[in-house]
Amino acid sequence: MEQSIESYIKNLVRDVIGQNLGGLELQCDRQTYVIANWKMNKDLNETAEFFQKINSSHDVSVVICPPTQLLYPTQLFIKQSGKPIGLGGQNVHWADKGAYTGETSGSMLTDVGCEYVIIGHSERRQYSFEDDELVNKKVQQALKSGLTPIICIGETLGQKSAMQTEQVLYKQIIGALKDIDTAHFILAYEPVWAIGTGQSATAELAQETHAYIRSILRQLMGQKAEGISILYGGSANERNAAEYSAMPDIDGVLVGGASLNAHVFDVIINAFAKGEQNS
Ligand code: PGA
Prior knowledge:
Layout: H1 2-20, E1 33-37, H2 44-53, E2 61-65, H3 71-81, E3 85-89, H4 106-111, E4 116-119, H5 122-127, H6 132-144, E5 148-153, H7 157-161, H8 165-176, E6 186-189, H9 203-221, E7 230-233, H10 241-245, E8 252-255, H11 262-278
Parallel strand pairs: 1-2, 1-8, 2-3, 3-4, 4-5, 5-6, 6-7, 7-8
The structure holds 2-phosphoglycolic acid (PGA).
2-phosphoglycolic acid binds next to strand 8.
């Protein structure tokens, strides 16, 4: 797809620049993403209807992550629509292949047209007991398969109240990126207390946290950190998207509930498209 070649080249340039000019200060052009995480929602008809209604935009990278059984038809709907929309999985197994009932491998995802995969979502960390070590194995597998991992991190309400946010995020980032020497990934800061609750983080709090996350990335990979997109997720919607898009370290959003309605999702996409044009 047109967009994937563009993002591949951008990532490549970003990596080469990061390696050659490691110590120098330079401003990198980060990609802006608006990503839909449909979770366990939508059937085939609803998906077809969504692609009839969605407008999308050439100014931001729009990615849809439907449930696994809808990946292939979604790829076809995207092609038919002719719109610049990417496709992502919601999960990947760490192994290449084998006796893992119900799981999906990296090559199965790319086979049906995926370029992205969500890894370490707090819902999976909770009900599938995914820890940082497993998240790291999945990130390795995604990269090996040619997928861009969308790595989710975030603190629970209890951890926030105990003022442990920075500690928690630090541990999750270090854990997820162990032995990873590329910048071909996206980070999504998703405070667990904000997911599906309507209690979104204020744009100021999200910006402050994203700046902290970028400072950790700088420690880990130097200048390459400037090119990594950090998305906000957690009750992001058509009403607060513009506020997030105005923040310098918020490079897009990972949207759950508000991504299910094409018109609502379009408003969010437009908020970031305008943000890009203004910057
Ligand atoms: P939400 O979900 O937008 O419904 O809060 C976001 C996510 O879980 O990725």
